[in-house]
Structures are given as structure tokens and as C-alpha cells.
Amino acid sequence: MARPPRTTPGFAEAGGPAPALGKAEEPHYHGHRDRLRARFAQGDTLPDYEFLELVLFRAIPRRDVKPIAKALIARFGSFAEVISAPAERLLEIDGIGPSVVTDLKIMEAAGRRLARGAVAERTLLSSWAAVIDYCRAAMAFAQREEFRLLFLDKRNRLIADEVQGRGTVDHTPVYPREVVRRALELSATALILVHNHPSGDPTPSQADIKMTRDIVAVAGPLGIVVHDHIIVGRDGHASFRGLKLI
Question: Which CDD domains does UniProt cross-reference here (predicted)?
């Protein structure tokens, strides 16, 4: 009876080196992660989906996150809109769980805090670009209308920043006397009104114009100046002062 042929350890029976045993092949996305981190460290300008990948790396360590990042951008439109999206809508994307949502919301809160830091302890009228950046970071991508008030002291420094109301996708109820009452409580001498248009178009409506003029009419006799009313949206912003509406 013939014996089966002997094989040399480390070589396949058909000839040539045998695959190494016990060594798992490194996932293909590991090299991609290293390259993307290197590009970021070198100051490269990354498209939104790649910047989003960097955020997802820590929350999803054992999966290729590029398809997830692209799905998020396809659904919501941009990096800013992704991190501003409601948690329940983010969870609809395959691969997104509660820990990922938490990381995205931390990014959103960090962006707002950075923008707010640029206006804190400064004269707002001399740092108008920072005010606009803050308002856009805080409200431009919200899913519902919000009405925000920036209360200023006599040197036009920020006393308080408060959201006075949240409404529907195209309306927020605003009560001029309540606005002025709160300003008096805070000893504010000036106001900047801010609200968002979830549609993206910041063009003031006739209702916006009337509401603003009503607040000016109530505030003026009490020595409270309305410096501006800013409307923010995904497509930019509008200033009532710049448009000569107040």
C-alpha cells in the first residue's frame, strides 16, 4: 500500500508557500483611516463626507464608515446638517446607534460653544461677523422655527442669550410685550432679535416685518433699542437693519 506524499511544513501540496496560520488579514479600511488622519493633520481641506468619517472612526472602530458617512450626507445634505439633525432621524441610517448619535451631538454642541465664545465678553456691534456666525451655528439648521433674543447692556455687551419660543416649520408665536418684559427683568438696554427659517430661505415675510415693528414700537418708549432682527437659514442670512426694514 503506497504511503501519501509528505509535505514540507510551510508549503502547500500544490507547491509554493502556504498561507501563514493564525494571522488575520488586516481590514482594508485601516489603511484608509491612517491616510485620512494624515491628510487632516497636514491641513488638507476634506469634503464633508470625509470629515464626517473622522468623527465616526472612534464611535465605530471595526467597520468601514465611508458608506455610512456618504449615506448621512445623502440624507441630510452637509456636515452641518448631519450633526444638527434630530436623533430619531439619525438612527434611521444603517450603522448609526445611540453612541454615534451622542458623538454627533457633542460635535454640534462644541460648534455652538466655539461660536458663542467669539461673541462673549465683546461689544457685539463691533464683532458683527462673529454674531452672524454664532446665530447660524445655533439655529440655521434647526428643523423648526426658533425665536432667540440677545440681550445687551449699555455698552452693547451680551447679558443673556435666550430662546423665547419654538414653533412649527414655518411659524413661531412671538409676543412683543413678553419680549420687552424680559428685557426689563435683565436690565437690558438693547436687543438683537434672531430667528431661523427651516426652509433655508432667509427672506423676511410680511409677518416677520410686522412682528419686528411691533417689538420696536413697544420697546422704544421704555428706552430699549432694537439693533437688528437677523433671520438665518441654510442659504444665508438677512438683516432687517441692512434691508432698511427697521
Answer: MPN_DUF2466 (cd08071)
